[in-house]
Amino acid sequence: MKQKQLFLALVGLVALATVVYMFAGGDSERIYQEKISQERERQFKFLKFNEESPLSNEQKSKLDSLNCFPIDEMFKVRARLIPLQNKQTLEIAMSDGSQELYTKHSIAEFELEGSTHRLLLLQSKDEIDGKNFFLTFADATSGESTYGGGRYLNLRQDGMNSITIDFNLAYNPYCAYNPDFACPIPPKENILQIPINAGEKNYIE
C-alpha cells in the first residue's frame, strides 16, 4: 500500500513539474515574442516619424508596418566568440563604390540548420565600447525575399567567450529604402549559403 501511495505521489510530482514547465515555457516564449515585436515597432516608428529616417515624406505616408518574417526562435543562436589575434583594418565596400574602414575583431561560430557557420564581427573605427559589434551579412534569401545588399545586426557580447546572434532582429540598411545613401556591403566572410528566414524582408513601397 505504501509503495502504491509513493508511486502515485511521484506521478503527481511529475505531472505538476510538467505543467509548471509548460506554463513557464509558454510564458518565456510570449515574453520573447513581445520583445522582438517591440523592437520592430521601435524600428518602424523611427522610419515613419524620425527626421533622420532615410524615407522621403511620401514614403513615410505610405509606410504602415515593417515587412518581416514571422518571429522564429530557431534563428536566435548562441555563438562561440573567437577573437582574432591580429585585429587588422578591413576596407568594406560601400554601395556607392566608396570604402569604409572597420576593424576585424572576432569570429562568431554557431550551429544552424544542422551545420556550423562562421561570421566575421566588425567594429567601427570610432567604437569606444569593446563589447559592441557590427555584423553585415548576406544569405540565400538575399536578392529574393530580402534586400540584395545584405542586412545588418548590432550585437553586444553577453558572455565571457560567447555572443547571442538573433537574426529575428536583422534589419535593412538605409540604401534598401533610398539609393542616395551609401551602405556597407557584406564581406565575403559573411555570405551564408543557407537561407535566414528571419528578420526584415524586402522593403515594398
Overview of the molecule:
The longest helix has 48 residues, at 2-49. The strands form two sheets. Strands 1, 2, 3, 4 and 7 form a five-stranded antiparallel sheet that branches. Strands 5-6 form a two-stranded antiparallel sheet. The chain contains two helices and seven strands. The chain is globular, with a radius of gyration of 21 Å. Strand 3 and strand 4 form a beta hairpin. By secondary structure, it is α+β, with helices and mostly antiparallel strands.
List the helices and strands and how they pair.
Layout: H1 2-49, H2 57-62, E1 76-83, E2 89-93, E3 99-112, E4 115-124, E5 132-137, E6 151-156, E7 162-166
Antiparallel strand pairs: 1-3, 1-7, 2-3, 3-4, 5-6
TL;DR of this structure?
With 205 residues, this protein is an alpha+beta fold. It is built from two helices and seven strands; from the N terminus they run H-H-E-E-E-E-E-E-E.
